[in-house]
Write a structure and sequence with these properties.
The chain is mainly α. Helices cover 40% and strands 10% of the residues. The protein has five helices and two strands. Strands 1-2 form a two-stranded parallel sheet. The chain is globular.
């Protein structure tokens, strides 16, 4: 999902307004294939959605058994904190939430 910054204030958008959804789908498919394998990646349902990440995830989680999200930990003290999206969905989702952190680098 994506949301363009700067759309709600007085300033104009600071990013390109044209998001190529097909290109985004292709990149996401390639990333899944790189992380998983082609067979496992083929069993994953993906969606490209425009909107606020928290709102989109909470709507998608309605009726779900579990919601799995990532956490971008920044390292050091910041790594101990949850990101704003993962924190918000963990507090407001109607189902259990699993937050997956990437291994330390």
């Amino acid at each position: 999902m994506w949301e363009l910054p700067g759309l709600y204030g007085w300033s104009g958008p600071t990013v390109d307004m044209d998001v190529d959804e097909e290109e985004t789908r292709q990149k996401m498919s390639q990333e899944l294939t790189d992380v998983l394998d082609a067979e496992a990646a083929g069993s994953v349902r993906t969606h490209v959605v425009h909107g606020n990440a928290v709102d989109v995830l909470l709507r998608a989680a309605e009726g779900a058994e579990v919601l799995v999200v990532g956490s971008r930990g920044r390292g050091g003290f910041a790594r101990a904190l949850l990101g704003s999206v993962s924190q918000h969905v963990s507090q407001h989702a109607s189902c259990p939430v699993v937050i997956v952190r990437s291994p330390k680098q």
